[in-house]
Amino acid sequence: MATSEITTGNDRPHMGGTPSIHTFDSPQPTPPADHSSHIATHRGVAYISGRLPVTPDDSPLAGEPFEVQARQVLNNLDACPGTAGTGSERQISVAVYLSDIGDWSAFDQVYKEWRGTTRPARAVAGARELHHESAVEVHAVAALD
Description:
Elements (H helix, E strand, L loop, with lengths): L11 E2 L7 E4 L14 E4 L2 E7 L14 H14 L11 E8 L5 H12 L5 E6 L9 E8 L2
Parallel strand pairs: 5-6
Antiparallel strand pairs: 1-2, 2-3, 3-4, 4-7, 5-7
């Protein structure tokens, strides 16, 4: 599906006036509280903003065990692509940020269960600090066509 054919009730054209760039907010998780969008699309590619371990009612899970946070992040990531006309199985690239790089193995196990047989390109990096004192944040790039 070409980006020019995507229409949703929350589609916001890019401020630069470029008609082929669209931004979307998924109904789940809650709309962004900052000046960003859940998804931006351009020329057959969906760019999904970083997802944090926040419940659908916008409650951060910073005090929860790492695996609980990781599963919530991946659930939040799953909620976004459908809004732009794609799915998690169409992910091309995934970037993972961990506040403790020692959690890499635990994340990889949760990710493997979530991802199944598809294996997009992936980067994992340690981050000194994440928003809401989260243990993990993930963003992705997915194909639309």
